[in-house]
Specification:
2 domains, 14 helices, alpha/beta, 22 strands, nine-stranded mixed sheet
């Protein structure tokens, strides 16, 4: 009996250390894991639109529900097991007009209170867009991260992920330690980029390396719309192809190029390059090389698709035998910051005699907000005739509300963006009217309303460059230069506060100083 007991004890001594180690490897020993918070607000908002963005426009996740936004942070994921996560508040909204100060303050203050409840932290994942405009502020994201530092202190490592159409000020660069952004436009790598930001943070904390030794920041005086900088085509395709090799060097953590956001008028609105890492020479030289590469091709950027006036676009679409012929109504694109209710385009479509007969070219227009029109349509029901106006409730600078007299073909309730959608047939045009503005990016957005976009002669969408699903569906495509809060003709916008000179507004400007500025971390100031 004594011999069996000693054998068992010896066996336990041999097995227990490996069991304990396995527990650490799989995250079961939570006291040894880094404690990391999650926070962020994401929206791009035009200062050239009269629209305002209020709290109800933000889809806010709090606490554990934040994990549902990140597939790579599912409960059984590696990332989830490698840290004690403290998710606070993450909110995002459709692009739109400036965020009201009250909305900004309420969301930021709620985030700060949630952060205070669980200090101290080892790190924080900061998930933002980077192009939020707020009433009375020039640098909302810089202000936000500065306030976060006041709560969590200077020691925690902050890793920030952004849209490449965001803006990086010195303040934002100073208070974040790790930073990255998307490398594709359209943003097919959005989740991949967010995961990279999280992995970078975990790696630095687990290795004990903590904050990078160097952060190189290079402002590049270029301001271009996304429709000219798509990574599907040159020169952005080759420019962004240089980012990963720069980031993958030994001694470099990450590298990024921000195109910036063209439809806001503040000093921060311009392109930026940032590289972070521990090898000073590589960090600096990589940042300067990427910035110079951007500057060298500045005159080569062109629209991702042919552009024309609306009348020319309609002429081409009517004459084409390719279905569907998609026309981008660019100036009021709700996914770039337009109000979404400019009626200038739909009014001109309905004025064309070709679309005034029921047997004319089939056209789908997506979309125009009109809450009063929707209410009246719901009361009348499918199949009824309606005669009411829609649009221009927010942005009436270019055209008044449009009169829509036709037959109600469909009514759908419960959309997460539009709330209620109505399809009214006016002549040969099917016009989608929504209670709240909505982008139409998926084929199901149309088929759920009984529409067949692939069989339509013409589809007009309030968008800039086509998102992948629309792009793959197109028979042909033209981008129409239409007016609105995100007008693609930047010279018509009337900038007053951006830094000048700025290319291409100042085409003959001298070559800028593209030397890297080494940014001190918040704990070094």
């Amino acid at each position: 009996m004594r011999t069996n007991f000693l054998s068992l004890a010896l066996l336990l001594l041999l097995v227990l250390p490996s069991c304990n180690q396995a527990g650490k490897d799989h995250g079961s020993s939570s006291k040894d894991l880094p404690k990391i918070a999650i926070a962020g607000l994401a929206i791009e908002s035009s200062t050239f639109s009269p629209a305002r963005t209020y709290a109800d426009a933000f889809k806010v996740r709090r606490g554990e529900e934040i994990f549902n936004y990140y597939p790579f942070m599912a409960e059984d994921s590696s990332a989830r097991k490698r840290a004690n996560w403290i998710p606070t508040l993450r909110g995002h909204a459709l692009p739109g007009g400036m965020v009201t100060r009250e909305t900004y303050d309420s969301l930021v203050n709620e985030t700060l209170q949630m952060l205070k409840a669980n200090v101290p932290y080892d790190g924080l994942y900061f998930d933002i867009h980077g192009a939020m405009s707020v009433e009375g502020m020039d640098d909302p994201e810089g202000d936000f991260i500065e306030k976060i530092r006041e709560v969590i202190g200077t020691e925690p490592v902050i890793s920030t992920c952004m849209d490449l159409h965001g803006n990086v000020t010195k303040k934002l660069a100073r208070h974040t330690d790790l930073i990255t952004c998307y490398r594709m436009a359209p943003h097919e790598d959005a989740l991949e980029s967010k995961q990279r930001a999280v992995e970078n943070l975990l790696d630095r904390l687990e290795s004990g390396k903590g904050k990078p030794k160097y952060k190189a920041w290079v402002p590049v005086p270029i301001l271009l719309p996304g429709e000219k900088t798509s990574t599907r085509i040159e020169p952005a395709k080759s420019l962004y192809a240089k980012v990963a090799p720069a980031a993958n060097q030994e001694g470099v953590i990450d590298a990024a190029i921000w195109v910036g956001y063209a439809w806001a008028d503040a000093p921060r609105n311009h392109a930026v390059v940032m590289v972070t890492g521990d090898d000073k020479e590589k960090v600096v030289s990589s940042a300067e090389e990427l910035a110079q590469s951007f500057w060298d091709v500045r005159s080569e950027f062109e629209f991702v698709a042919p552009v024309a006036t609306l009348e020319e676009s309609l002429d081409m679409a009517i004459a084409s035998d390719k279905k569907p012929f998609i026309i981008s109504d660019m100036g009021d694109n709700p996914t770039a910051g337009g109000a979404g209710d400019v009626t200038w385009t739909i009014q001109r479509i309905l004025d064309r005699p070709e679309f005034q007969k029921p047997d004319g070219p089939t056209l789908i227009y997506a979309s125009i907000p009109g809450p009063r029109f929707v209410k009246k349509a719901v009361e009348a029901g499918v199949g009824a005739t309606i005669d009411a106006t829609a649009g221009a409730n927010v942005d009436s600078r270019f055209a008044p509300p449009v009169r829509l007299k036709g037959t109600i073909k469909a009514i759908k309730h419960g959309d997460e963006d539009a709330d209620t959608e109505v399809v009214v047939k006016v002549g040969s045009a099917h016009v989608i009217v929504t209670k709240r503005r909505k982008p139409y990016h998926h084929e199901s957005d149309f088929t759920n309303l009984g529409l067949s976009p692939r069989e339509a002669d013409i589809v007009v969408v309030k968008i800039g460059y086509l998102v992948p699903e629309l792009y793959n569906m197109r028979g042909d495509w033209i981008m129409a230069l239409t007016p609105g809060g995100v007008d693609q003709d930047l010279e018509r916008l009337g900038y007053e506060n951006i830094k000048r000179p700025m290319y291409p507004l100042d085409k003959d400007m001298e070559d800028p100083d593209l030397s890297a500025r080494l940014i001190k971390s918040s704990d070094e100031i």
